[in-house]
Amino acid sequence: MSCCGSRRASLRSGPASAPSLASGSALAASARGGSAAFRPSASTLFEYTGHAQFAVTGPLTGVIYRFSAHGQRAQVHGADAASLMSIPLLKVVH
What we know:
The protein is of the alpha+beta class. 26% of the residues lie in helices and 21% in strands. The protein is elongated, with a radius of gyration of 19 Å. It starts with 6 loop residues before the first helix and ends with a strand.
């Protein structure tokens, strides 16, 4: 019967460190053609282009961003910005 070798000892020492949020977001930005300098801690300004009330929950922070009128703007946490960029009713204000 074979032994698992050093794998058991490495499991006891704790889980491998997860990639940081910054590196994961930079990879996501790079994958969609964005800037590799994307900083998830910086906020991004979004403008709502729809006409009815709209709310969206940031997938990483859990913050609920609410828009009640066409043209309303909101600062979005950088960690949520990449996901909100995929919503057609929201546009980034430069």
